[in-house]
Amino acid sequence: MARNFMPLMAAVLLLLVVAVADASGRPVAGDPCSTTDFPVLCKSVVKGVKKPSAATAAAIKALLPLTQKAKAKAKKGKDDTCFSNFDSAIDNLQKSLKNIKENDGFSLNINLSAALTDFETCIDALEEGSPSSSDPIAKSARLLRQMADNCLSLSTLLPH
Q1: Is-above-0.85 flag for pTM?
Q2: Is 129 helix (H, G, I), strand (E, B) or coil?
Q3: How many domains does the chain have?
Q4: Is residue 5 part of a domain?
Q5: Residues of the chain below pLDDT 70
């Protein structure tokens, strides 16, 4: 029970941190990726989209197929923790796309926070097992975490 509670708490804490961020997180005019922690990665998936809702949707749509590939790698590698977390992340990302269509910024932030937590949980589990830096599941999980972090940053630009 406590193990299931931790990802929820992490998501809530992340949401609170995002909610109290200061005005320095405002985007540079016309560049929603300027608010992200990984702007080069963001720009590579957003591809010049300026509208925050469209940029957020583009980032999520880029993240979904990569998460599906990572889930397949985890299944093949018999990594049950990452497999189930990638599966959960896919569900949360699909919900996030619905949230954008429904203009539900609050739920969008919750679902993106949950997806980010899913990737972090996989990484944490892998680090406990001390994988090599070339482990394909670990490499995928780290990239997915960065992309999910960007999605969450972009989502904060939407009205709530």
Answers
A1: no
A2: coil
A3: 1
A4: no
A5: 1-29, 130-133
